[in-house]
Amino acid sequence: MISCKDSNMKADKAQYSGKDVSGEAFIIRNKDDKSAIVRIQTADKWLLYSGTSIDNIDFSKPVAEGRGSGIFPLNVPDSVRSYFQFVTPEGKAILAERHLPMEGGYNFRDLGGIKTTDGKFVKWGKIFRSDDLHNLTDGDLRYLSSIPLVSIVDFRSPDEIKRSPDKFPSSVSKDYAYSITPGNLLAAKSLANLKEAQMDSAMMDMNRILVTDSACVNRYKDFFTLLQQEKEVPLMFHCSAGKDRTGMGAALILFALGVDENTIIEDYLSSNIYLDGKYAQYIAQNPNLKPLFEVKKEFIQAGIDEIKKEHGTVENYLTNVLGVDIQKFRERYLY
Question: Which family would the database say this protein is a member of (predicted)?
Fold first, then answer.
């Protein structure tokens, strides 16, 4: 006799279903050799299937299976990105690595897998955020081509772009220089001479500028126009550190998709984890400038609160200022 639980273990397509088990398994890639592991946090029996896209996951044989928690190596290709179907008796979830294993980069992330307030999930492999791309290795570029990335949006200033030009995966057909330069608007503050508390205040001001200054707003409007065109996706957007201009862009995307504010802020704060070490030497030499190279809740909160003060809700801002068709946006980017 086959138990009801065993019958629930059958899978033939990638999906989220049953109990939310998305927090019970995590795919992690090693930055240097791109080897993969799965970290399991469940007492149940589980199966894991894989493929190089959501649509071609091989359900004929799991790449890993077991019962209970642990860390398990995965025998999957290291030169291309893999996607996974996690199956337990209680529920199913689609998985991939949230943090992309770029040897020549730090803050590379997929927005996929984040849960919305109405129980849906952001699609994997569609929208990516990152820091600068000029140090990417040939292996990194091959990995990004396997997604395959189609478009890149660069929020850096013209000087930043000229100083450190992007390296592009071969799959990219178009890059967009949508320069956002709030630093220029804060130049009068002579940042190098500010104390840390004053620097925090300057970073809060910068986040307010990102969502109110017409030049910045127009760049985000252009960005959302791209995101609403199917031919431009999968898309990666970035600045230098991938935390401020990119962080606000990511927050606005997640608001548009119906993710709750606390989760959005947690995602924003994770830049501190992924950027660890990137600016350590510079911070050691200029400790008062540390806030320039980290994120704090009050930074992004200042921008969010400014939007709410002027527009009532972030959704109003997205619809009326940035031109986002929220219903269609969610249909496009949510499971």
Answer: Belongs to the protein-tyrosine phosphatase family.
